[in-house]
């Protein structure tokens, strides 16, 4: 399991999104990973999901970050 924020963020993504993010410059990957960590830390809804399934909470936070980026 990756320990750096970008690696953890990439691991939380589905395969298609993972490849799209990997194609971005490293600075953009780091910005997205920081937004993902903020999402995990600040969203109370994700806290509840995290108690049930940490991987699901991480995947949901990653989805939200990417939705905001493209939306």
Automatic annotation (TrEMBL):
Protein name, as recorded: Uncharacterized protein
Native organism taxonomy: Bacteria, Bacillati, Actinomycetota, Actinomycetes, Kitasatosporales
Annotated Basic and acidic residues bias: 15-41, 60-71
Region (Disordered): 1-71
């Amino acid at each position: 399991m990756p320990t750096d924020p970008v690696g953890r963020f990439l691991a939380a993504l589905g395969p298609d999104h993972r490849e799209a993010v990997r194609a971005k410059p490293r600075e953009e990957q780091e910005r997205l990973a920081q937004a993902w960590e903020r999402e995990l830390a600040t969203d109370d809804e994700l806290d509840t999901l995290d108690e049930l399934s940490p991987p699901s909470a991480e995947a949901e936070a990653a989805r939200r970050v990417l939705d905001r980026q493209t939306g």
